[in-house]
Amino acid sequence: MSTNHCSGSPCHNGGTCINNSNGFVCQCKAGWTGSTCSEDFNECADPSLSGVICQNGGQCENRPPPTRFSCNCSPEYYGNSCSQKYNDCTQSKCGGKGTCMDKDRTQHGIEAYECVCFPGFELSSDGTTCVDIDECKSSPCYPGVQCKNIDGSYKCKSCPAGMTGDGEDCEYIDQCAIDNGGCDAMVTCTNTNPGRKCGSCPAGYVGNGVYCKKQSLCDSNNGGCSPMATCSEGDRGDVTCKCGPGYSGNGVGPDGCKQTDITCDLNCANGYCVVQNGKPACLCFSGYSGELCDKAEDPCLSNPCLNGGSCVSSKTDYECKCTSDWTGVNCEQPLGECGGELASSNGTLAYPGGGNLYPNNAKCSWIILVNEGLVVNLQFTQFDLEKKSGQTCHDKLEIYDGVTTVQKPPLLGTYCGTDTPVVPESTHNSVELDFISDGARQGTGFTVKWTSKKGLCGGRISTPTGIIQSPGYPRYDSKS
């Protein structure tokens, strides 16, 4: 009779006992070994499992069943067998401003990646993302041109007045190539960069180079007419003398005009009655005509507005609405032109205009000239210059009562900053505006409107003889 050697359950830890003639054999469950399945099986020491249960350089550590073993993974891998690799690049990495390059981790729990930033971006100070480069800090635009930083790039504003280009590279405009720079067709225009200079009028002509007129016999000694007469030259070189209001006679010679006692009884609608050559007549205001000054003229009929400007009539006067590239009374001056002569009874001067910044180291001079016997009134509608430092205006606008000849005329005021200037009325029919800027801060310049009116007294007399009467003569007036 055979013996059952398994009757005493010799196999431990769930092992299966197999009886045989020599005794028994235990079939152990996973993780156990030995004749009776009582010994822990060391999977980490099994050569056949090396690199299988713990991959990618993971260190195997034996554990009692049911765990059996555990893997200590290198920093770059994770999972029960260290089979999964970390990818530290996600859409949020590098701020969307560069390409994320995954790298092997060298420390547990510490992400490892590198951002290769797109053009216009750079690594943040901690090296974890890409941030915008402020290119404006390196002053890439032309001197005096404002730089605007944008995401990944920058943008330069318009070139300074009198220059052309993309704002980064600017070059001076050849002002003389456009309508002879505004100079009279008979003179030579010279570029001064910035600005231009008009040459002298040719022989036989007089003027400032911007305007030239043929020299007249009336320019000398009033053409031989009486100081009280108006001289006019005919097409054949003859001279006509016409006595002024309140005088009569042939107008020729010093005694060609005599005061008259004739009563002036005409009802002049838009003018005043004068006696000329012994007869009453109406002297009409500007914009009116007819024997009684009762016919209004449309000042826009002559198309005075140039370069695409539109004319707006105000019965006796007009105003030109200029396009964005032009300014001046008749839209004859390029916007932002540095200096020039503005001869009109009213108008607007904008420098540099268009909301642009005026250039550094600018020196501009404008002359505003109205008719003889009138004075100039200036009213600023916009003013933005560098603010005063202490008592010093580094960028400034100086306004003079009259025009510089040998020496500067009386100064009406020096202005800077952003306060709107209040300028005294001139005592002459001209004012000079001199603008100077340094190489530091800039502003949007100024816009000034000018009007003219009859002065209380004063004027220019160019005849060798004549009569001057004080206001209200012969009545005494302490206010005159």
Provide a short characterization of the protein structure.
This protein has 480 residues and is an all-beta fold. Helix content is 0%, strand content 34%.
What does this structure look like?
The chain is mostly beta strands. About 30% of the residues are buried. The protein has strands at about 15-20, 25, 30-35, 40, 60, 70, 75-80, 85, 100, 115, 120-125, 130, 145-150, 155, 165, 170, 190, 195-200, 205, 210-215, 230-235, 240-245, 245-250, 260, 270-275, 280-285, 290, 295, 310-315, 320, 325, 335, 340-345, 345-350, 365-370, 375-385, 395-400, 410-415, 430-435, 445-455. It has five domains: about 15-85, Ribbon (Laminin); about 95-130, no CATH class; about 135-170, Laminin (Ribbon), CATH 2.10.25.10; about 215-295, no CATH class; about 335-455, Jelly Rolls (Sandwich). It contains no helices and 40 strands. The protein is rod-shaped. The strands form 18 sheets. A five-stranded mixed beta sheet has the order 33-35-39-37-38, with no helix packed on it. The termini are far apart.
